[in-house]
Design a protein that fits this description.
Strand content: 15-25%
Structural class: alpha+beta
Oligomer: single chain
Number of strands: 8
Number of helices: 6
Shape: globular
Largest sheet: 4 strands, antiparallel
Radius of gyration: 20 Å
């Protein structure tokens, strides 16, 4: 099994919609039962696929095209050794996240009146409001709000495959570096992110990019 550690950092507020709403928030973000925001692995896999296609379309990158289908399983059976699994991303690495879950579970069971999942969620998110203007006036019924994950929040997860050839790892490194945005309202200043990976030999995507292009790639 090949496992690449993955980190996403929000560089602006980001709306990772859960598809849920309530009487307070029109569009909420995905979170776990303790209130910690979650970056969906399924969502990220789709974003990495889009980024990989962009990379392959760049000058001199066509050689990586053969790996796209194998990595992202669009024309490859589950038995394909390069087929990627992308875990959900949480606010800490796997073991640390489990420690956080146990801590929040204790706090919410013992002090539920003052520490709820909504309180935890509020530590990492904000509510943004918007409305539609027409002829200089607010259009009736257009007032909306949405929850966003704040700038500076880090998510951790992994990319996993049975085995990965060096070229496939190179494509993932390039795709991670090329990935710059996620979520909704990207054309309104939301959703800027950085994406980085680390191999089990402690090489990062920057090390791999340096190997491909030389130090000028920095």
């Amino acid at each position: 099994m090949t496992v690449l550690e993955l980190k996403i950092k929000t560089l602006s507020p980001i709306h990772l919609s859960s598809g849920a709403a309530d009487v307070i928030v029109d569009s909420d973000v995905a979170s776990d039962k303790y209130g910690m925001p979650v970056f969906s692995g399924r969502r990220l896999k789709g974003l990495l696929h889009e980024s990989a296609l962009e990379v392959v379309g760049m000058k001199g990158m066509a050689k990586y095209g053969k790996w796209v289908e194998k990595l992202f399983q669009h024309d490859c059976s589950k038995s394909c050794p390069e087929a990627l699994t992308v875990t959900d991303l949480h606010l800490a690495s796997r073991n640390e996240y489990m420690d956080l879950c146990r801590a929040f579970e204790y706090l919410q069971s013992e002090y539920g009146a003052i520490v709820s999942a909504n309180d935890v969620l509020g530590e990492f998110t904000s509510i943004r409001y918007q409305t539609k203007m027409k002829d200089g006036l607010v259009e009736k019924g257009s007032f909306r709000n949405m929850r966003v994950v704040d700038e500076g929040v880090e998510f951790f997860g992994s990319l996993e495959a049975e085995s990965l050839e060096p070229e496939a790892v190179e494509l993932l490194a390039l795709s991670a570096r090329n990935l710059r945005s996620a979520g909704m309202k990207r054309n309104r200043g939301f959703g800027r992110i950085s994406c980085s990976i680390k191999l089990d030999d402690n090489r990062t995507e920057q090390d791999i990019i340096d190997e491909i292009f030389g130090k000028e790639a920095k």
